Amino acid sequence: MEIEVKSKDENEIVFIIRDAEVPFINAIRRIAMMEVPKIAIEDVNIVQNDSAMFNEVLAHRLGLTPLISNLDAIDGMEMADECDCEDYCPKCSVSFTLNKTGPGVIYSKDLVSTDSTIKPVYDTIPLLKLKENQNVELEAVAKIGLGKEHAKWMPTTVCAYKQYPKITFNEDSEVNYDLADVCPRNILKSDKRSKVLKVQNIENCSMCKACVRADENNYIDISFEPENFIFKIETDGSIPPEEVLSKACDVLNEKTDKFITFSKN
């Protein structure tokens, strides 16, 4: 199996996997979405809320506020269901406080964390709006969880793959230069001097087959390479995408070891 990184930034990675099978690729996708631990606000204790926003809506908005959850930030913390405390403690949680008086908009940056390494990823997420003399006071408790329990613990906003596109031409048929204008992603380019259609940026092909439907001469065929894949992971900023991929591979490896041990017994 070969892996080639095509592009990468702080929130997104796109890479090509060659010589692999669909079950393996799909296992990585599902684990990256559902079983990579992330920290998010779970419990909200509201002391006072004079705003027009209902307590339940405010709590929901706090829960979906992405928090920094990279390996350095959550190192040493325990999963909530694995901790021996009754409710929450410093070993399995981080507390945030919010105490503001209006007028003004309250942003995610106004949440004060007990751990300086775990804080909202973005400072400018609006939480609620207060009018003059209105006050909000609350404590929010963040815990580590998994995406299979709730969407707020999903580290990925996009986690998807597609099989590598394959475009072939029938040399026995007449070249249909008009197909270049049909393609919605400009994958095809007419080259009348060489009497061919050229393929450019094939990895951007969505395999919509608009060109095939417009082709009356059976000149072009769109298929895919069954063992090659284009994989994309995009996160909400809480965890770098390469960390999500690495952790997903670790989890898959642990599951494989358990299955092998089980099968031997």
TrEMBL record:
<dbReference type="InterPro" id="IPR011262">
    <property type="entry name" value="DNA-dir_RNA_pol_insert"/>
</dbReference>
<dbReference type="GO" id="GO:0003677">
    <property type="term" value="F:DNA binding"/>
</dbReference>
<keyword id="KW-0240">DNA-directed RNA polymerase</keyword>
<dbReference type="InterPro" id="IPR011263">
    <property type="entry name" value="DNA-dir_RNA_pol_RpoA/D/Rpb3"/>
</dbReference>
<comment type="similarity">
    <text>Belongs to the archaeal Rpo3/eukaryotic RPB3 RNA polymerase subunit family.</text>
</comment>
<keyword id="KW-0548">Nucleotidyltransferase</keyword>
<keyword id="KW-0411">Iron-sulfur</keyword>
<keyword id="KW-0804">Transcription</keyword>
<comment type="subunit">
    <text>Part of the RNA polymerase complex.</text>
</comment>
<dbReference type="GO" id="GO:0000428">
    <property type="term" value="C:DNA-directed RNA polymerase complex"/>
</dbReference>
<dbReference type="GO" id="GO:0003899">
    <property type="term" value="F:DNA-directed RNA polymerase activity"/>
</dbReference>
<keyword id="KW-0963">Cytoplasm</keyword>
<protein>
    <recommendedName>
        <fullName>DNA-directed RNA polymerase subunit Rpo3</fullName>
        <ecNumber>2.7.7.6</ecNumber>
    </recommendedName>
</protein>
<feature type="binding site">
    <location>
        <position position="208"/>
    </location>
    <ligand>
        <name>[3Fe-4S] cluster</name>
    </ligand>
</feature>
<feature type="binding site">
    <location>
        <position position="205"/>
    </location>
    <ligand>
        <name>[3Fe-4S] cluster</name>
    </ligand>
</feature>
<dbReference type="GO" id="GO:0006351">
    <property type="term" value="P:DNA-templated transcription"/>
</dbReference>
<dbReference type="GO" id="GO:0005737">
    <property type="term" value="C:cytoplasm"/>
</dbReference>
<dbReference type="Pfam" id="PF01193">
    <property type="entry name" value="RNA_pol_L"/>
</dbReference>
<keyword id="KW-0479">Metal-binding</keyword>
<keyword id="KW-0808">Transferase</keyword>
<dbReference type="GO" id="GO:0046872">
    <property type="term" value="F:metal ion binding"/>
</dbReference>
<dbReference type="InterPro" id="IPR022842">
    <property type="entry name" value="RNAP_Rpo3/Rpb3/RPAC1"/>
</dbReference>
<feature type="binding site">
    <location>
        <position position="211"/>
    </location>
    <ligand>
        <name>[3Fe-4S] cluster</name>
    </ligand>
</feature>
<dbReference type="GO" id="GO:0051538">
    <property type="term" value="F:3 iron, 4 sulfur cluster binding"/>
</dbReference>
<dbReference type="InterPro" id="IPR036643">
    <property type="entry name" value="RNApol_insert_sf"/>
</dbReference>
<dbReference type="GO" id="GO:0046983">
    <property type="term" value="F:protein dimerization activity"/>
</dbReference>
<dbReference type="InterPro" id="IPR036603">
    <property type="entry name" value="RBP11-like"/>
</dbReference>
<dbReference type="Pfam" id="PF01000">
    <property type="entry name" value="RNA_pol_A_bac"/>
</dbReference>
<comment type="function">
    <text>DNA-dependent RNA polymerase (RNAP) catalyzes the transcription of DNA into RNA using the four ribonucleoside triphosphates as substrates.</text>
</comment>
<feature type="domain" description="DNA-directed RNA polymerase RpoA/D/Rpb3-type">
    <location>
        <begin position="12"/>
        <end position="262"/>
    </location>
</feature>
<keyword id="KW-0003">3Fe-4S</keyword>
<dbReference type="InterPro" id="IPR050518">
    <property type="entry name" value="Rpo3/RPB3_RNA_Pol_subunit"/>
</dbReference>
<keyword id="KW-0408">Iron</keyword>
